[in-house]
Amino acid sequence: MAEVRVVTDSAADLDRAVAAERGIAIVDLDVRLGEVGPDVTKTWSPEEFWQHSVSSSVLPETSAPSPGAFAATFEKAASEGASGVVCVTLSSKLSATYQAAVAGAEAVADNIDVTVVDSLTVTMAEGLVVLAALEAARRGGDVGAVARTAETVRTRTHVFGVLDTLDNLRKGGRIGGAQAFMGSLLSIKPVVEVRDGVVEAESRQRTRQRSFEYLVGKVRSAGSIARLAVVHAVAPDIEVFLDLLSETFPRDETDVGIVGPVIGTHCGPGTIGVCFELAAP
Fold first, then answer.
1. What is the mean pLDDT of residues 97-107?
2. What is the pLDDT of residue 171?
3. CATH classification at residue 19
4. Does a structural domain hold residue 45?
5. Which of 14, 38, 155, 225 has the greatest number of CB atoms lying within 10 Å of its CB?
6. What does residue 194 show for φ and ψ, rounded to 5 degrees?
7. Mean pLDDT value across the chain
8. CA 90 to CA 94: how far, in whole Å?
9. CB–CB of 247/141 below 8 Å?
10. pTM (2 decimals)?
11. Same structural domain, 230 and 127
12. What are the residues whose beta carbons fall under 8 Å from the beta carbon of 221, sequence distance 6 or more?
């Protein structure tokens, strides 16, 4: 029986080699850095993006993929014999990517069954929803079953982040409830959460070490965790955080990745995020 394919976008910060190995298709958002357009930036690795970004005098900008980019990916899955597609996107409250995916799905409706799931989150929290959908597909689930798995897992998935600056969020228009931090940023290390699809203020901490301790406390108090990932935007103190976290969650069970261009555009360098999926009750 043909398997349901899983598609996502580049905001999920999945390792591309791992995604390709597992058959997950990634549709890129457009990223522009000054005069450098998306045709170039999409060829950069996350490390290369940060190398260029931190040395640039301008902030990067992002835009959603076209419906045609999604439609082409769905059509490719159909041509390869997929029985259907479940596409998991970043939060519809932060980007038009979900709407573009829905339009792409409508364009190919005569050729393949596509369901688009709004993850209502970002970075590897979105990635965890994608991985859960993939597991459901490999168990033989149809499009409906795979989509329901993704929708269920997203309710158990959380992401918290420590930021060094709010400039990227503010200038990118994604600041949401984190606006509460403005005016006191110089004296705090802000902790944010993506809650119900938007960026919200979570905590004000006086030092970066205290912000790390706060994140670890969120993990410790969360309950039983099925999967956990840590992502960072070339944070020089990432090992400090990982060592602290290892006292609560096993280091060898923690996936560690670098924030890619899409989310990096809005969170800025130095960010550290922790993303986790709670175990099913």
1. 98
2. 54
3. 3.40.50.10440
4. no
5. 14
6. -90, 110
7. 92
8. 8
9. no
10. 0.92
11. no
12. none
DSSP assignment string, 78-129: HHTT-SEEEEEES-TTT-SHHHHHHHHHHHTTTT--EEEEE-SS-HHHHHHH
Whether 101 maps to a domain, the answer reads yes
What percentage of the chain exceeds 90 in pLDDT? 81
Distance CA 123, CA 159 (A): 8
At residue 54 the predicted structure's pLDDT band, cuts being 50, 70 and 90, is confident
Would residue 45 be called left, alpha or beta, if left means φ above 0 and alpha means ψ between -120 and 50 degrees? Answer: beta
Of the candidates 130, 154, 178, which is a domain's last residue? 154
Tokens of 234: 């070339």
- Least confident span in 21-35, 178-192, 264-278: 178-192
Nearest to 92 by CA among 7, 200, 19, 11: 11
Per-residue pLDDT tens digits for 238-255: 999 999 999 999 999 999
Indicate whether 119 and 168 sit together in one domain: no
Cβ contact 144:251 at 8 Å: no
Helix axes 238-245, 208-221, angle to 10 degrees: 30
**Confidence band of 58 (pLDDT split at 50, 70, 90):** confident
Domain of 164, in residue numbers: 157-278
Confidence bin at 175 (pLDDT 50/70/90): very low
Q: State the DSSP H helix or E strand holding residue 187, giving kind and residue range, or none if neither.
A: none
Residue at 30: amino acid letter: D
* Last residue of one domain, picked from the residues 110, 127, 154: 154
Three-class DSSP category at 164: coil
As given in the structure block, the two tokens for residue 155 are 């309710």
- Among 165, 163, 164, 172, smallest CA distance to 266 is for 172
Q: How many CA atoms lie within 13 A of 184 on its CB side?
A: 12
